[in-house]
Amino acid sequence: MSAASRPFLRYLAVGAVATAAHYLLLAWGVERMHWPAPLAAAAGAVLGAQLAFVGNRRFTFGHAGPWWQAWVRFQVTALLGAATSAGVVALGTRLGLHYLLAQMAATGVAMVLTYVVNKRWSFG
């Protein structure tokens, strides 16, 4: 593994942990707390984003600058990633792809995009 690929692999690992937390809170909220699914999904997304911020700030990018500015930029980047993902899914399904295949493509595109933006802007 090259030194250049380590931050991206760390980004993937942090994303996996954040996604797992998102889904765990979603399931817990719906199954145990009887929250409406959209509320539980939103709570999970917020939790996942905050875990991703902390993990990426410390583990992926080793950012030591002011956390508040990086946090705002990270949240903007997350919204950019979500919008990009939605756009790729919309395009893919319009072109006749199954929605899950379109989502897989969208995840890949959004992951690379947000990694680059976070590396250069959020934590740069």
From TrEMBL:
Subcellular location: Membrane
Protein keywords: Membrane, Transmembrane, Transmembrane helix
Boundaries of every GtrA/DPMS transmembrane domain copy: 10-123
Keyword Transmembrane helix: yes
Xref: Pfam families: GtrA_DPMS_TM (PF04138)
Stretches that traverse the bilayer: 12-30, 36-55, 67-91, 97-117
Membrane topology (UniProt): Multi-pass membrane protein
UniProt xrefs under InterPro entries: GtrA_CellWall_Glycosyl (IPR051401), GtrA_DPMS_TM (IPR007267)
Family note: Belongs to the GtrA family.
Protein name in UniProt: GtrA family protein
Organism: Pseudaquabacterium inlustre
